[in-house]
Write a structure and sequence with these properties.
With 267 residues, this protein is of the alpha/beta class. It has 2 domains: 153 residues, Rossmann fold (3-Layer(aba) Sandwich), CATH 3.40.50; 100 residues, 2-Layer Sandwich (Hypothetical Protein, Haloacid Dehalogenase-like Hydrolase, Chain: A, domain 2), CATH 3.30.1240.10. It is 39% helix and 23% strand. The longest helix has 15 residues. It is globular, with a radius of gyration of 18 Å.
Length: 267
């Protein structure tokens, strides 16, 4: 009988390989975990609509942690268990500030992606996420409802500079994190994977020490910290690996499958 009862798995650069595919070994490991009656779900910065096809492929019908934890929504019934959007005025302030730098901005309303215009950056993001980007012109004029999150896209040195500049302005009011080196995300202060995972643990009556989280990035830090066992795949940066209880092989070496086999499936 496995000690771990609830497992949350990050998608990009963790479960997904460099070609955005799930290996047959990982598919099999997830299936076998489910057969043991263990709760396993996806925990990602992606939109719900971007995650749902992967959940369906894996046979996951649990609530999915999406938008870094800003939305927790059941995979099949699409019941929304939690939605913590960015307060509208704060979102508008963030958008206005990023516009000063000239960087690409994504905003997410009603699980749709909106941009000012279609740029190479917008096309790149849409290709990665498998989601259509809707160009709407001036985002400040467009934003009339609280977005689930706001995201800036630029090269990594530019994103690092933006993060350094934005934290003193918004760190006390919003959760700010990088989901990829070129993506800086702004969400509700309690919209973290850690908070969402704690909510699911309570929902399923699972003790914190029986929770496992597998990730690779800065946006996984809170759930790695919350989980009884925090696992980081080998392609993660060294500062993230230092936070891990266990470092698994890389995403291209079936790190998720290796972890599930090692800690859950081997009796």
């Amino acid at each position: 009988m496995s000690y771990y009862k609830l497992i949350a798995v990050d998608m990009d650069d963790t479960l997904l390989d460099s070609n955005l595919n799930i290996s047959s070994r990982s598919m099999d490991a997830v299936r076998r975990v489910q057969e043991k009656g263990i709760h396993i779900t996806l925990s990602t910065g992606r939109m719900f609509s971007s995650v749902k096809p992967y959940a369906k492929k894996l046979g996951i019908d649990l609530p999915l942690i999406t938008y870094q934890g800003a939305m927790v929504k059941s995979a099949l019934s699409e019941e929304v268990l939690l939605h913590r959007p960015v307060p509208l005025e704060l979102a508008r302030q963030v958008v206005a500030k990023i516009k000063e730098y000239g960087y690409n901005i994504n905003v997410y309303v009603d699980d749709k992606l909106y941009v000012e215009k279609i740029t190479p950056e917008a096309e790149m993001y849409a290709r990665i996420s498998g989601i259509k980007a809707h160009p709407v012109g001036d985002l400040l004029e467009f934003l009339q409802h609280p977005p689930t999150k706001v995201l800036a896209v630029a090269k990594e040195p530019e994103i690092d500079k933006l993060e350094k500049d934005m934290r003193p302005l918004f760190d006390q009011q919003l959760h700010i994190t990088k989901s990829k080196p070129q993506f800086l995300e702004f969400s509700h202060p309690r919209a973290t994977k850690g908070h969402a995972l704690a909510m699911l643990a309570e929902r399923y009556g699972v003790e914190q020490k029986q929770v496992m989280a597998i990730g690779d990035g800065y946006n996984d830090v809170e759930m790695l910290d919350y989980a009884g066992l925090g696992v980081v795949v080998g392609n993660a940066r060294e500062e993230i690996k230092k936070l891990a209880d266990h470092v698994a092989p890389s995403n291209d070496e079936d790190g998720v499958a290796d972890t599930l086999e090692r800690f859950v499936l081997e009796e």
